[in-house]
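Database export, one record per block. Field names are fixed; values are copied verbatim from the stored entry.
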Amino acid sequence: MPKPSSNQGKEPALQAIWTGTISFSLVAIPVQLVRAVDPGRVSFRMLHSRDYSPLVRRMVCPKEEKIVPPDEIIRGYEIGPGKYILVTDEELESVSPERSRTIEIVEFIDMKDVDPIYYDHPYYLVPAKGGEKSYRLLVEVLRRTNKAGLAKFVLGEREYLVAVRSMAAALSLITLHYSEETLSDEELVPGEETVKAEETARMKKIISGMAADFNPDPYADERRKKILKLLKKLAKERGFVEAPAAEEEDQEGPADLVAVLEESMRRAKKSR
């Protein structure tokens, strides 16, 4: 179970991705959807080695070897090498799910019955103004009954299947894969072979000896830590380069790169 953030009360609340209501029967609870994970990936921009300008992607036609303007770009669904079905934006819009501000719970299930292969992405649901009491009630009842609400949910242009469950003090929303998206494992494993009783006993003994309660704190992304350490070292030794200011807007002056990296490393430590 995730530990409460050590930064609680010190940092601004996460920005809401979506605002609406949880709905079932005659119940409607106003909530906001916020991130539950911050991958903390270290990303790099590709720069022009001559003047350090950030490079940008362009849509290029390989046949004509030229950049294609937006008004000449259309969509095509590939059905074979070099063969496409053309689809307009209007046609796609006609089959897109109707935008909704409701997480509509259709039934309550046991999460233990959901194979983890169906798990996609976790979020938190936090109470919106006026929904605090009913929110706390749902958190408590789901926790006591070990149930989760199975719901349909539209975000962006896609309709998701989701599970709304109780955490220690909040609701989480987990997007789930549809069954048609999961791949069967039947052809992945070798044919049945006879397993001797002593082999089974030996394997069980090994697993029993290594059994432990799940605790993710001792584990960390070592590569990320090393990259941040390297960047901090390079910032002190080399400083930083600046891109041409021609298209830069709303800049407040050069950032203290070492301070930025130190803050990133502090956050990485706190999140573990």
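Remark 1: The chain has five helices and eleven strands.
Remark 2: The radius of gyration is 25 Å.
End of record.
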